[in-house]
Amino acid sequence: MPSQLAVDDISVAFGGHRALDSVALNAERGQVTGLIGPNGAGKSTLFDVISGLRKPLSGNVSLNGRDVTRAGPARRARHGLARTFQRLELFGRLSVRDNLRVAAELGPERRHAGHIADEILARLGIEHLADTTADSLSTGMGRLVEVARALAVRPSLILLDEPAAGQDVQETELFAGLLRTLAADGTAVLLVEHDMELVMSVCDTVYVLDLGRIIAAGPPGVIRRDETVLAAYLGKS
Ligand SMILES: Nc1ncnc2c1ncn2[C@@H]1O[C@H](COP(=O)(O)OP(=O)(O)OP(=O)(O)O)[C@@H](O)[C@H]1O
Q: What pTM was estimated for this model as a whole?
């Protein structure tokens, strides 16, 4: 079976600066894949390429074996890709439930949008927030609701950009459980996150990006002890 996401030989340049240099990466169904790296390593740029917001200089992106390199964001979404952003993108004046409902109306089961919204609220254990307006949520809960909203389109691949930023310890624990549940349900999860404890505890595979290149990839136990990875981080902190 092909990988849910296969990225091959992706390069991106901003002026003369190579933000990504021949990057290759895979994300599989049923797994949480981590993408880590120091600030400016190219993580968000790679997410932009995967979601179709930025055209690469070279390389290919495939979703479930289908080459989508030339497809725009909407077509990729129809092929099962969903994404969250570093900044919150919720509709502030709408309730949490309505934020989910509006998203579900863009997905394949739009006629059941209300039902999908309720089901996801229950699955995440946040039914009590259904009628809360999005702009009165804490940042941490706002991030959880962002993920809930991404789930409303029934994605087979979900890209999460720093979802735990601003979460307290309890919210992060809840979140780690959610990521494992998503993977167990068969979703491929690709996670960019600076919280190393979270990354090392939930990921099956971790890729390390530094200055636009993948410098290591493997299970968390191996990455944690990798000399090149330690040098990349220590050199910049
Ligand atoms: N629109 C742009 N124009 C010019 N340079 C850019 C642009 N976007 C990103 N860059 C540069 O590309 C490199 C990669 O940036 P990117 O935001 O992808 O890194 P990142 O790993 O996501 O960083 P962070 O962890 O801080 O979010 C950086 O050197 C950045 O300055």
A: 0.90
